Amino acid sequence: MDGKVFVTVEKGMRVEVPEGTKILDVLPQVKDLIEEKYGSLDNVVAARVDGHLVDLHYKLIRDVKLDFIDAHTVTGRRIIERSYVFLLTLAARDVLGNENVLVEHSYNQGLYGRLRDREITYSEIEQIKEKMWEYVKKAIKFEFVEMDRKEAIELFKKENRDDKVRLFETMYTKTVTLYKAEGTDYYDYVFLPLVPDTSYLNAFDLIIYPPGFVLVLPEPKNYRKPAKFEEIVMLYKAFQEHRNWLSLMGLPDVGALNKMIVSGKAKEIIMVAEALQEKKIAEIADKIAENISDVRLVLIAGPSSSGKTTFSKRLGIQLRVNGINPIVISTDDYFVPRDKTPRDEEGRPDFDSIEAMDVEFFNQQLMALLKGEEIELPRYNFIRGVREPSGKFVKLDKNSVIVVEGIHALNPITTAQVPGYTKFKIYVSALTQLNIDDHNRIPTTDARLIRRMVRDSLFRGYGVIDTLRQWPLVRRGEDRYIFPYQEEADVFFNSALPYELSVLRPLVEPLLQAVPKLYPEYAEAERLLKFIRHFEPLSTTFVPRTSLLREFVGGSLFEY
Fold this sequence. Notes:
Blueprint: E1 4-8, E2 14-18, E3 21-22, H1 23-26, H2 31-38, E4 44-49, E5 52-54, E6 59-60, E7 64-70, H3 74-96, E8 101-107, E9 110-115, H4 122-138, E10 142-148, H5 149-158, H6 162-169, E11 175-181, E12 187-189, E13 205-209, E14 212-216, E15 218-219, E16 222-226, H7 233-249, H8 254-262, H9 266-290, E17 297-301, H10 308-321, E18 325-330, H11 359-370, E19 375-381, E20 386-394, E21 400-405, E22 423-429, H12 444-460, H13 464-481, E23 491-494, H14 500-513, H15 522-532, H16 550-553
Parallel strand pairs: 1-7, 17-21, 17-22, 18-21, 22-23
Antiparallel strand pairs: 1-2, 3-6, 4-5, 4-7, 8-9, 9-14, 10-11, 11-12, 13-14, 15-16, 19-20
Helix pairs in contact: 3-4, 5-6, 6-8, 9-10, 12-13, 12-14, 14-15
């Protein structure tokens, strides 16, 4: 390779480099541009070559368009997180041998993990942390390896890593993408790029959290500084409850799910999953009934696309079983007209701001109801972006409760005029516990984003690019307006269904495939495509018409 290639980078800058040059070696040549946009060369953790996501060791062998992935973007954050998991599991193997380490779910600004077969000790945690720092100081390179799928299956069989074997046996690709730690024989399955080497991973902590541990990750806005770990006990318990549900269904990971779908057992999984959710909803309704002498207002909140609307309707049915008449109100119907929607710092509509809700009108109607007056509920037309009369008139009777669902339902501003002792507060979120394998978790935000993309496309008049562009604003709004109130809830409800991503795959895949390569959203679309393709597809015909999933795919018995 003695030729030259031309690399076009952001803002139209063009540099000439020898054929075979790594992207990592191009960065110093465009240092001024990178520092202007990203603050530092170190903040670039991956790149897009003609739209495709690659690591920084990728060699340039032809003329290309090159874009950089910032550590502080969603994709960059995922790359940083997965790189830390690789570092953790590499160090854990050195300390624990072949004991299986599971990285299960997010927990505040970190990841909760455990050993599969026993409780980890404080001494072992300290040894693993020390080994991680040792690797950081050595700047061990992460090497990309494309391996024949059957060869990879044999490799992981020898190491008794059954999670990888199950997954690869249900994949239909000729090869699989692995990473290897330079100078070791440690391989792991990674479907995203990793950072170039372990020296990038110098802002973490590893703490004991019986029966497992928490890997504390960097702050979202500064990946060179470890975040402060804070417990969210109810959230942790909700994750553990879902893990127990998966155990009942025999679903340790996506590979196991795929095998059951292929073997014709999808209906069994769906029926058990739906029954477990219904049982939980019934238990919540029973708690409300036990306190019905005080409760006048049931508040249901949670982040975007958590299934609050269907949950509230199903809860309403269970309340009726208890002799309680629910009047269900959605705060989504109290949006201001779209042309009145507040704008963020960059002038984009901020639909998840509490200012996007007509709080004054909502409180007027709420207080009128509590005084015994009859009101007409509004209905928001998401296609036209305006609030319209619904023709539905409601009035409280002696056996009634008001059920309010929406992202701001737990915010004290929303129901400021109602005494606290009359409220029963429920937090709903899709806290998926089913992971791709032992080391590749399914982020709850990704599951919710895919739900939202499908719903937006089918029912709200938004294309997938619009949803992807809006998502950072949604996440910011959740951090500001929703997550701070989750611990105030009396009950957590986990709306995740273990089979849902298999159902959503056929619906979201063509949407993601249609994102043009030249669009900035292509990198995120490509990442989500790689993620969703781990799931064996399922038809929506398998989904019960009362399922929470019907809120996103259509065909529900409930009216929305």
